[in-house]
Structures are given as structure tokens and as C-alpha cells.
Here is the input.
Amino acid sequence: MHQHIIIEPFKIKTVEPITMSTEKQRLEWLRKAHYNPFLLTSDQVIIDLLTDSGTSAMSTAQWSAMMSGDESYAGARSWKKLEHVIHDLTGYPHILPTHQGRAAERILYSLLGGKGKVFISNTHFDTTRANIEFSGAKAIDCPIEQALHPSVRHPFKGNMDISRLEKLIREHGAKNVGAVIMTVTNNTGGGQPVSMENMKAVSALCKENKILFVIDACRIAENAYFVNHRETGFEGKSYKEIAQEMFSLADGCVMSAKKDGLVNIGGFLALRDNELSDACTNLLIITEGFTTYGGLAGRDMEAIAVGLEEVFDRDYLRYRIRSTEYLGEKIQEYGIPIMLPIGGHAVYVDAKGLYKHIPVEQYPGQALVCALYRIGGVRCVEVGSVMFGTYDERGTLIPAPMELVRLAIPRRVYTQSHVDYVVEVFQEIAAHARETKGMRITHEPKFLRHFTAHFEPVP
Here is the structure.
């Protein structure tokens, strides 16, 4: 049977109530939150698409495993189980548990970074860039040209520009490159996948220049799905086998298990090199915890161990990718411009294309984020010049390459009726697009301003 309806490959056993609200209430809450949805409380939100990080619903197998969590400070059974699962997946000998992905980033990039160092990535995400720049190093994005054009279709828009990577290495000198980082899938670039062919080319270039090659692996299972379905020669391989091959091309990885680990907290750093691992282990003990728990409870490690196996299930990944595509396809029918092709964990709306009348210095992405919340109680995040814009020496905005809004889909949380509700909200957004006004920043911190900045509508 050719299946048209997306059926969730699970049954609902426990429910969490959603607090319904009126547009009048939401307008007041938005004003008190300074027009920044990060500053809203969860019970003020109807559909929460702010992030797919740590928002997954866990399975019965995960909840069951948590009951057997060994909370020993050193050498817990739960750690040995998690270590075995990660080693089997990555092949890396040194595995350091952390409480989440950005902790692994901080440990690794503070040691590799510092003034005069550069890090090159297909696109650095916000916390990665912040950890690198906080060390005094410079973060450089090196995506392929197609990645910067939302309407252009390319099967692997997450790929790195190999010729530009070679030029950057020559320009800065291989000894000054702290690491080359491949984010799979490329979150900032629209949740776009990276091909195995591109991974092999980057790996070979790093080996040739003796540069550390690191994978940001938080969505490695979703990336494996796209390789299986879009890249010749991988049709007969399992998703896990594809992920294992990808890991084999790098020197290590950082992973937030809050994404494809299907849990609410946790992460890890995994490495090949003994000396680098020793240095990272010292910093882990100082800042996170002992080497066999790294800031995690035993029950959390049990849940991650199960999640890292469940995430490669064929039925789950088909549902995951197809349900995300469904949202993108439906809002396109109302003329909403989106990043194409549709990514794995989120739909990215091209706010600059939707609000052509709003200049980039008035942050069209933030205007859309506020409109979605006001009209339907849908919370999401701007991935444009609020998140990645910088200023020149005169204080003039240097905008981001794209003005996107990310609708991140929590794993195993919402049903098709929830998604259909979001589609209805976008129908209203499209009908009143010309009436929407831009935003301006009234307060911002030095780093990661999108989390806590204050805004107000432009009169």
C-alpha cells in the first residue's frame, strides 16, 4: 500500500496538558518578555518549536532503563553501558561524558583555541562560535555557495566548500587552524545534510595538512537518513552503518545527546588522540565531574544508551523526516518561502523573502517570530541577523547571510493535528504579511544576544 498519511510509529501513554490562551493574553505576555520568546514561560506557549534540543519524549524502554541507573560516583554500571554504546557507534577509544553538548565544546575548543587560532566549519552554530570566540580564536564559516540561497535545491546543502577550505588553510597556515568542524546536519544552514563524498574530501585535506577534524554529531542519525536516500552507493546500508562510516573519517566528535540521543539532558566528547584526551579529561574533572559521570546522573546515562540505539530505527527516522517535510510542504502552499530542500529536524522560513518590505536592520526574522506567537501561541527562534549579525567599527549592522526562522520539531512529541494547527497559523501570517512591522533591539549582551536581548516594534 502506498501510504499518504503520516502515522506516528508509537502510541501515547502519558500526556502533558497544553495551556490554551487568547491573542490578547499573548500580546501582553510578549510585551512583558520584551518581544523575545526565550523570555516567555512554557505555560504561555501552545506549540513550542523553539528547539529540538532536550525536548524529546522518551520511550518506555528509556524510562525502564532509568530505573536501573547506577548512581555510583566512579565506575558505575550505567557508565559502562553508555561507554559501550558510544564506542560501538563512533569507534573512538576515549569517551568523556558531559552534561550537554556545549560543555564538550567548551572543554575541547578552549584547549585548541586561543588568540591567533582559527576554526573552520561548514557553519558554526551559536554556542560553538561563542565557545571558540570566547577563547580568543576566530570562527570561519565555509559552506558551499548553494547553501546561502534558500530557494536553490541541492541534495547536500550542508557540504563544505572544499576549494575555499584549501585557500583558508593556506591563508592562515595549517598550524594555526585549531580544528575543522563538520556539523551534521548543518543546523544554521537550514538543517541541511552533509554527503559522505564531502566528508571524505574534508577528511583527506585535514590528514594532508595534519589538522584535527571534528564532527558535531548531534543529528548524525538524521544525516545518515539523507545519505541513504540521496547518495549513490548507500542505498543498501543501514543508517547506523552510514553513521559509523562517517565517524571513521574524523579524529573525534562532540555530541549533544539532547537531539539524536532522544533525551532531555546529556552529551559527550569522543577522541582518538591520547594526549588531547588526557588534557580534556583534566578539564572535565575540574569543571564537569569525574570521568565516569561527567555531570550526568546514572539514570541519564541509561536513557542516552537506549536513545542512541532507538534513533537509528527505520520506522522512527522515516516518520521523523517525513513529518518535518509535511509541515514545510503545507506552509509552502500558502506562499510561505522556506529553505529548500526541507531539512531533517526543522523547517526554516525565509523571513527576508516573506517580509520584503522589512529591511534587515529591522530584523524580519524576529518580526516573524513575534507574529507567530501573537497569532497562534507558536514559539520558535530567529536564525538570522539577531543570532549571527555583527557590527562594524562604526556600530553599523553587518547582517547574516540569510534571515531565517527555525521551526524546530521536538522528537516524538507533537501529532499531525498539532502540525496542522501550525499550518493554519501560517495561513494567517501569509494573509497579513504586508502589515507586519520590523523590530529594533533595545538591550543586548556581548555574546549570544538572541537568548536574552530585548526588542520593541518599529513604529
Observations:
- DSSP finds 17 helices and 16 strands in the chain.
